[in-house]
Design brief:
93 residues; alpha+beta; TATA-Binding Protein; five-stranded antiparallel β-sheet
């Protein structure tokens, strides 16, 4: 199993953090077919070959995504897409 760690500082308000989580949840469900649960400022998700959490709160976004055996060959591409999606929602710092 391989893990992708993410961490971003940002300037979003609490309301904008909530909106960013909603957008990310829709992306994970719609584009990656993940099952997503939202608990306060955290998304907990699981899809085919991956699972993880992302927390977005004022000032900081962080998370861990675990990749299963089938997803490991695509780690670099997945990590790039994760970073691209976060940058789009949080604004690149």
């Amino acid at each position: 199993m391989s893990t992708v760690s993410i961490r971003r500082e940002h300037n979003l308000s609490a309301e904008d953090c909530h909106d960013a989580l909603d957008e990310l949840a829709h992306y994970l469900q719609g584009h990656l077919g993940a099952k997503v649960r939202q608990a306060s400022s955290q998304l907990i998700f699981e899809g085919k070959g991956f699972s993880g959490t992302v927390t977005i709160r004022p000032g900081l976004a962080d998370g861990q995504i675990k990749l299963g055996m089938l997803a490991m060959p695509f780690k670099r591409q997945l990590e790039s897409e994760i970073n691209r999606q976060l940058d789009a929602r949080l604004g690149a710092q």
